[in-house]
Amino acid sequence: MLRTINNSGDKNNPTFLRMRLVPNRSLDSYGTKLVFCVAAFGFLLPIIPFIGSPIGITLTIFSGLTFYLFLTLLQRSFQQGNTFEEILISKNKIIVIHQEKNKEQKAWEGNPYWTRVNLDLNNPKLKNYLTLAGKGRHIELGAFLSPGERIELRDKIQNALAKANSA
Question: How far is CA 163 from CA 4, 131, 142, in A?
């Protein structure tokens, strides 16, 4: 998902693009809580008639283990949503910050005049593979975005680079 952040900058170094790229998420925090409650109720409901019997104890153990596994996988999925990329294009520099789900940040900086946007339509790794080239390096952008979003991102970056180079 592409989110444009306030593009204001000072007069000496105006910002032409400030954007945050985040993975698409099917559930927000409210939806996650709702799924959690429905799953808890679904695991608890079949056990109620058997409370106090050996079958009830067995059902409780297996339901508890299944629910624990479900919560672990749900938490892992939710943590993957912490990945993001932030792009800043101003007159004198372009900065790309990539943050992984483990909070590790990688930063790349370049000059807008020498930076080029490449979109590989036939890449076997990823459809519409988007990269930035500059300072002798190629960096991947928006691997978690849909192919259509990567095309939209390329257009926005090219427009911002054109504005930065003409300013």
Answer: 17, 19, 22
Q: For 34-43, write each residue's pLDDT tens digit.
A: 888 998 899 8
Phi-psi region at 142: left, alpha or beta (left = phi > 0; alpha = psi -120 to 50): left
pTM over 0.85: no
- Beta pairing partners, 18: 88
Q: Supply the pLDDT for residue 9.
A: 57
- How many Cβ atoms are within 10 Å of 56's Cβ, its own excluded? 15
> How far from each other are the two terminal CA atoms of the chain, in whole angstroms?
29
Q: Residue 6 — φ and ψ, nearest 5°?
A: -45, 120
Q: Which helix (H) or strand (E) holds 117?
A: strand 116-120
57, 58, 60, 66: CA torsion to nearest 10: 160
- Per the CB < 8 A criterion, the answer to whether 36 and 71 are in contact is yes
From CA 157, how far away is CA 88, in angstroms rounded?
A: 10
- Where does 15-83 show beta strands of DSSP type E? 15-21
pLDDT at 69: 93
SS3 83: coil
Tell me which residues of the chain have a pLDDT lower than 70. 1-4, 6-13, 80-81
